[in-house]
Task: structure prediction
Amino acid sequence: MVSTIVNPTTPSPLNWSYTPEELRKLTDKLIEDGKQFDKQIEEIPDDECSFETVIAPLGRKTENESEVIEANIDFFQHVSPNKDLRDASAECSLKLQEFGIERSMNKKIYQKVAKVVENIKSGKFKAPENPEDQRLLEKMELDYRRSGLALPDDKLAELKELKKKLTNISIEFSRSIAEDKTTRVFTKKELDGLSEDFFENLEKTTKDGEEAYVVDMKYPSYFPILKLAKSEETRKAMMLAYGQRCKPNLDRLKEALSLRIKMANILGYPSHSHFKLETKMAKNPKNVLDFLQSLKEKLQPLGKEEIKKLLELKKQEKEELNQPYDGILHDWDLRYYNRMLIEKEYAVKDDEIKQYLPINEVTEEMLGIYEKIFSIKCVEIKNPVVWHPDVRQLEIYDKKTNDYMGTVYLDLHPREGKYTHAACFGLASGYDKEDGSHAYPVAAMVANFSKPTATKPSLLKHSEVTTYYHELGHVFHQICSHTKWSRFHGTNVERDFVEAPSQMLENWCWEEEVLEILSHHYQDKSKKLPKDLIQSLIKTKNVNAAIFNLRQIFYGTIDMKLHTMEKVDNDLDLIKVYDDLRKEVMMIENMPDTWPITTFDHIMSGYDSGYYGYLWSEVFSADMYFSKFKPIGILNPEVGEKYRNIILKNGGSRDAMELLKEFLGREPNNEAFLKSLGI
Ligand SMILES: [Zn+2]
Result:
């Protein structure tokens, strides 16, 4: 049970009462102070450059202290109910970002950092004794080097030029997808199978004198049609239109691939993947390719079984409809028969389950579970001073020592101008202050669960409960972390590990024991989800899991294949590369005459040589869950505490692989993940 107190015991380092004018002033001051500070560092004589004179002040001023203020300024644009504040916040945030980029390319500062390394090497100064200090030095130096600051001026200029070109191409690539206006017209009959509310927002027209609808290619149109349209011709036509968009992106992608190789070469790496993976848990392309290959081999036999099962459904349906059966599971069949299978075999209805998951009870129980597993205590502030009346504020304490650990905000319902997804915002990272005391973290969970109505509380779908649990996982990663430098706090871990703690916690939402704790019928709180409903729900977790994981493996592999290339041939046929690999990995052919790679935005913006990360972290999260928690008890506080002290507490202050090995007591592997899928 979450207890309440009237006032916070520890003042939050964040301020929610700023005016737009104050935000602008604060931003200007931050930039002015930053410039002053940089000048001081630039003026340090080379023979005085040491960890204490250069690195520690940089860590303190440019990371520890300023990041909290920057996050405070930035957060208003996502959550403030006041438009002027949101606008000011966006404007200031952009200014700060630009200043940040300028700073990261400051060669004079880099030279001082490089001097520190040199002076330690020559024995002039001692290397820092604290391993986290040593890590700070190494990571800082590496960041500058990866930005090209160690290069001679002409090479650096060339790198900057290539970077600019690449940025423009990826903007064009994304814009082409965003601005695509492809539509198809279907008659009402052709859309048979779709529910009435699907038609509500569609533009009406006529086709061959019949009532018809204009359908665009956005997810809310595309996925329902592929899942529900009874007519195979309709699904086929939809997929064809979807897969033929943005053809000019083929050349853009080719150009981007070749620019990335050139940039990697200038920096001294054989391929873009080598460059990208250097700072990831995976470390190098071979590790990623081996990982994907091993999963593929083990999943394909099950994938074949799943395809067979879907084909049986198809055959049966075709016979009933008196239509020819071709014995092939086409791309446009997959989501349709998958949906049919779930409905037929598991009879799970979202709406029924929802009645048992009112948001306040779920929140209370969920926090209770976190309290138990992680040995913490959540205390709610009664009348918090926050940015909107919907927002709740909690203080988190260590259950044994009663020590304050951090502050959490929950902002769960939609409103105008608010961020539209669910996410955790790490507003303040913890760090050791110069006076020896510790600055504690603050994190906000922002989501858009439906608001209560006059007659019903906000009711959550099971998938929303999972999202809630996942995002709270990030929140508690922030809160349970304790590091010396903010750069390593909480979720500041390798990009291919950051999802693992949250993915692991999602497993709780698929356990009978937990679903029973979480559920309370909104009309009668003593009523729990019926056992048979829980059991069928749990069974749906792994329906066609092999096929869907093989799809992820395919995306990860094509991304790696393109980014490990050491040169781009003129006659590189991206469509063929895509189609061949797709057939080989997924065993379901890509639809002929389509080129979905032109809308695969991930590999253009941010997930280049990084798509594998989704599966990578999931496989290791399964290893932690099924090898450690599940055998001893998923609510066992001893395992939970060990997990908290090894994985969460250390954040990014040590390599994720090292932490994982310490927690597991061995090298991680994919066995638990495969076993959870029944392999
Ligand atoms: Zn996440």
Q: What stands out?
A: The chain has a mean pLDDT of 95.
